[in-house]
Amino acid sequence: MTCQEFKDALDAILADVAAEAGPARPSASLLERAAACPCCKRALVEWTWLADQVRKLDRPKPSADFAHRVVAELKRTPAGSRRQAWADASPVVSTLGSLVAIAASIALLVVVWRPIEEGASQVQVASVEQKSPLERPAALDVPVRETTKAYLALAQDFARTVQLADPEPTDGTPAIEPEGPARDSSVPPVRSVLRRSGASFAAASEEIGSGIRPIADSAAGAFAFLWKGR
Amino acid sequence: MGVQNEERRLVERCLEGDESAHYEFVGRFQGLVFGICLRMLGDAHEAEDVAQEVFLRAMRSLGKWDRSRPLRPWILTIAVNRCRTHLGRMKKRPSLTENAEELPDLRPNEDDSNELRAELSVALLQLREDYRQVFLLFHEQGLSYEEMSEATGRPVGTLKTWLHRARGELLEHLRRKGLVPETSHDLSGV
């Protein structure tokens, strides 16, 4: 008998000891073989001793009212009760809950994303509107006209401001030219065009070959000039 | 066979809603269930809570019990599973038994056998959960390897290995404490 076979046989004995199936003792042949092997003998003695000690351990008992508590709890939540049904179904419910939460998150993303997308397209439109009025597409004609009116109002305000704050000197000294890019000498000054012909901004724009905004800017100066010459 | 018939009748009465059968059922198995819970968890209050849970689960699932099999291993299976679940939860909390060796020994002086029992209980709690479970089912509850395999869902070979290691670790613990008697070559005492 090898050590392993011995241990297997010993397991059976220890199981009897543990199950209190009587004074389980190794058979004579087992003892004889164990005596020939120090390893087996040691195992036999120690393991049998250990099993005996475990058997001698106190058998713990719960508190005296344990059975009452269990039966009371059983009565309180009998099988099939709503609470019990909930406890049984809780894994399914939690799975469904997770799915609903995921679906709600997706829906929320869609709801939030759509306005963001629309907002982005509005920003694109706004950026188109901020371009030079003449560069705007025909579809944006109405807003352009409104912008032009605003420019004109601004120009009038500017003209008044210039007239009040910076009157052209009358003592023969040259007027101070406003700072800005150098004017192309081939382009006739807007104020003279406007004064000469009483042309509209559009006509002046065509004649000068410039956009409406520069014309409006120039108109400020023209107004100032006209105001002064009044 | 008589025991099994008796158990079958008891279960039938429980299923019929007989309250006295409920009391009888709990009284019959409470030592077994509480014992394994206490040895596995190491705390009487927690063991009682888990034992109560085991009984509630068992009594609500009596209809699923295979009547051709003994009732005891079936209940032990539920107890072992509940203990494992509880231990899993406890691992998330700081354990009191982890530092048991670092704490000063405040126990009153005991005679050798009491000391041995106390040390054995401590050693059991220090075993790895799997080893402890197998050791208790085998040595304390007297389950066979097949029944243990069914209860734990592990192959018999694994259980034998765990049991062997559990014994070795327990003996080593007790040997360190000087509580294992010297082995003599005389086997007459065995």
Model description:
- The complex is a heterodimer of chains A (230) and B (190).
- Chain A is 70% helix and 0% strand.
- Chain A has helices at residues 3-18, 28-36, 38-56, 66-76, 82-129, 141-165, 190-197, 201-208, 212-229.
- In chain A, α7 crosses α9 (212-229).
- The longest helix of chain A has 48 residues, at 82-129.
- Chain A is rod-shaped, with a radius of gyration of 52 Å.
- Residues 165-169 of chain A have low confidence and may be disordered.
- Chain B has eight helices and no strands.
- Helix content of chain B is 68%, strand content 0%.
- Chain B has 190 residues and is mainly alpha-helical.
- In chain B, α3 (44-60) packs across α4.
- At the A-B interface, α1, α2, α3 and α4 of A face α2, α3, α5, α6 and α8 of B.
Q: List the secondary-structure elements of chain B in sequence, H or E.
A: HHHHHHHH
Low-confidence runs of at least 5 consecutive residues of chain B: 95-110, 184-190
Count of individual beta strands of chain B: 0
Number of strands of chain A: 0
Average predicted confidence as pLDDT of chain B: 81
Brief synopsis:
Chain A is mostly helical and 230 residues long.
Outline the secondary-structure elements.
The complex is a heterodimer of chains A (230) and B (190).
Chain A: H1 3-18, H2 28-36, H3 38-56, H4 66-76, H5 82-129, H6 141-165, H7 190-197, H8 201-208, H9 212-229
Helix pairs in contact in A: 1-3, 2-3, 6-9, 7-9
Chain B: H1 2-15, H2 19-41, H3 44-60, H4 71-90, H5 112-126, H6 129-140, H7 145-152, H8 156-176
Helix pairs in contact in B: 1-2, 2-3, 2-4, 3-4, 4-7, 5-8, 6-8
